[in-house]
Design goal:
635 residues, alpha+beta, Rossmann fold, Elongation Factor Tu (Ef-tu), domain 3, eight-stranded antiparallel β-sheet, 19 helices, 28% strand, globular
């Protein structure tokens, strides 16, 4: 018994060792609706003998439930969502792992509908190859061009055009060759030069895993042969060393290592590394793994690296080859795929995550958006859901990067909504803007502290927000009069006044309102640097922009005052007649009527103007500033 048990254990060990030696290919399937993507992958799994008995039994039962008595509905293996099965389409990205004697695979079955482009981008972001399906009866469609462009955009260079449903065109060689000619012309336009075209029938199994007798005129590989033999790019290992630090490993006082996944090049003990963005250098002391130290680690491996010097390295930093480091910048041109339900708002502050580093970011009005159907560049003020365009992007702090074309891991990023934490966009860095390299902060001798000392006060921003007619300007004016009487140095930025000059070019769309507040917040920051107490009276309806304004100065330098009044009360006080015009439809995007107001959640001061007179509110605000030390000379 012990000998048999030992033999069994050895066989299992050999099996796992063989699996570890196999290369892994990640690929996506994409195409227009009903081209047969899910059916193709289901057939591939079935004919490769990769389904368990219980899976086959379930498939047979569900196929009968779908109305097929004799044939198996292979798409049911991947269309896992109830909504997908009801509509018989793919909505989400379905991932499946399988393995053959030659290679391991992870396939992402991506949606065909245009409105699910963002899902296709998600599946393609880590893929090495793409299978683009075309219905032999319909030929190339809009989605064929769209998915081919996205494939190229996301750095996938190996493409198999699967001309499916050949059985429905009587396995016509002429039909296949016509589609192949047309597609190669499109692929050449998009820079896709490694294209293989395969005629097949997913429902019947022609050329899926075995050559079909019905297409004797075709001499190329079957789909499985292509997947098993397509060369996986080793560009990552050939490039310079890159490893974003995901975790600083400190299990005890005598060990400090930096853990992460290598995304470029190779590394050995003794190699000279540069830590970015700081630029400090050291050498590799050890490459530590769970199974022991390594003499060599390559792209794709997750390791812990210890350094020969005690230098500051944090999560989000990048370890890179000292003699070929990545760039460091805080301004880029980038391709953007917008994934948010709400449109992109130029000027709004988002979070940008690149590698393990997260920083604040704002996007400039797009240079253009792309019509994927024609590859035409169109003017745009924003990007809608599934929109693709090119924008400049400004970061709140510099990051290490490579252009996406050189390294997908160090050149790709996602954008996150600060309020909901939802991923709203994916980006591909093209290059750093030259001004980010040429424009630097100029050191000054007379700084904020010197200005504040001269004025005998601590600078601050007092930000008044509330509906039109709530009483912001009235209270802000009274506060400034009281501070002036106390000999304090102030300036009042009022929404109406600023729109006569600095912001006269802006309208009242959501995007223009975001830009309106961004500019005012930047001016307020400059005035704080000048040592002033800045009173800002703006509706500023969106929390995201008020949060951005707060982040521009030190936490102790910002005081948010919510001037609260119900909408009905604000309308009664409206001497300018703006609410009446908005009710009649003469004013669009008016806050409280057809544009939302997001009340502060954690304002330092809340003034209920239905209970508190303006004079009393102003006294309370001055008292708060006195208690906070704003009116005292700086120490």
């Amino acid at each position: 018994m012990s000998g048999a048990g030992s033999t069994s254990v050895d066989a299992v060990a050999r099996h796992f060792e063989a699996q570890e030696r196999k290369t892994l290919l990640r690929f996506i399937t994409c195409g227009s609706v009903d081209d047969g993507k899910s059916t193709l992958i289901g057939r591939l799994l079935y004919e490769s003998k990769l389904l368990y008995d219980d899976q086959l039994a379930t498939l047979r039962a569900e196929s009968k439930g779908a109305g097929s008595d004799d044939d198996l509905e292979f798409a049911l293996l991947l269309d896992g969502l109830a909504a997908e099965r009801e509509q018989q389409i793919t909505i989400d990205v379905a991932y499946r792992f399988f393995s053959t004697d030659r290679r391991k695979f992870i396939v992402a079955d991506t949606p065909g509908h245009e409105q699910y482009t963002r899902n296709m981008v998600t599946g393609a972001s880590t893929a090495d190859a793409a299978i683009i399906l075309v219905d032999a009866r319909k030929g190339l469609l809009t989605q064929t061009r769209r998915h081919s462009y996205l494939t190229s955009l996301l750095g996938i260079r190996h493409v198999a055009l699967a001309v499916n449903k050949m059985d429905l065109v009587a396995y016509s060689k002429e039909a296949f060759e016509r589609i192949e000619r047309e597609y190669r012309g499109i692929a050449a336009q998009m820079g896709l030069d490694d294209v293989v075209c395969i005629p097949l029938s997913a429902s019947r199994g022609d050329n899926v895993t075995q050559a079909s007798a019905a297409t004797r005129w075709y001499g190329g590989p079957t789909l499985l042969e292509y997947l098993e033999t397509v060369r996986i790019d080793d560009d990552a290992q050939a490039g310079p060393f890159r490893m974003p630090v995901q975790w600083v490993n400190r299990p005890g006082a005598h060990f400090r290592g930096y853990a992460g996944r290598i995304v470029g090049g190779v590394v050995r003990p003794g190699d000279r590394l540069r830590v970015l963005p700081s630029g400090r250098q050291s050498t590799v002391a050890r490459i530590v793994t769970r199974d022991g130290d390594l003499d060599l680690a390559v792209a794709g491996q997750s390791v812990t690296i210890t350094l020969g010097d005690e230098i500051d390295v944090s999560r989000g930093d990048m370890l890179a080859a000292a003699d070929s480091p990545p760039g460091v910048a805080d301004q880029f041109e980038a391709g953007i795929v917008w994934m948010g339900e709400e449109p992109m708002l130029p000027g709004r502050s988002y979070l940008l995550k690149i590698g393990a580093k997260t920083v604040g970011a704002s996007l400039v009005t797009p240079k253009y958006k792309l019509n994927v159907d024609t590859l035409e560049r169109l003017p745009a003020r924003t990007l809608e859901l599934n929109g693709i365009g090119v924008c400049n992007i400004n970061l709140h702090a510099p990051v290490a990067f490579d252009p996406y074309a050189e390294n997908r891991d160090t050149g790709g990023f996602i954008l996150i909504d600060r309020l909901t934490n939802a991923t709203v966009g994916a980006g591909l860095i093209h290059f750093a803007l030259r001004r980010s390299q040429n424009v630097h902060w100029q050191a000054v001798d007379v700084d904020k502290a010197a200005h504040a000392a001269l004025k005998g006060q601590r600078p601050a921003v007092v930000w008044f927000t509330g509906l039109s007619g709530a009483g912001k300007s009235t209270i802000a004016n009274l506060v400034e009069k009281k501070l002036h009487a106390l000999g304090r140095h102030t300036y009042l930025l009022d929404g109406d006044n600023v729109r006569h000059g600095l912001n006269k070019d802006l309208g009242f769309t959501e995007a223009d309102r975001v830009e309106n507040i961004r500019r005012v917040a930047e001016v307020a920051r400059l005035m704080v640097d000048a040592g002033l107490i800045v009173l800002v009276s703006f509706i500023s309806p969106f929390r995201a922009e008020r949060r951005m304004a707060r982040a521009l100065v030190e936490q102790c330098e910002f005081c948010e005052v919510f001037v609260d009044a119900p909408l009905g009360v604000a309308e009664q006080r409206d001497t300018k007649g703006l609410y009446a015009k908005a009710r009649r439809g003469e004013l669009r995007n008016f806050t409280g009527i057809d544009s939302p107001y997001e009340p502060p959640e954690h304002a330092e001061i809340v003034v209920d103007t239905t209970r508190t007179a303006p004079e009393s509110a102003a006294e309370a605000i001055v008292a708060h500033l006195r208690d906070a030390g704003v009116l005292d000379p700086p120490r």
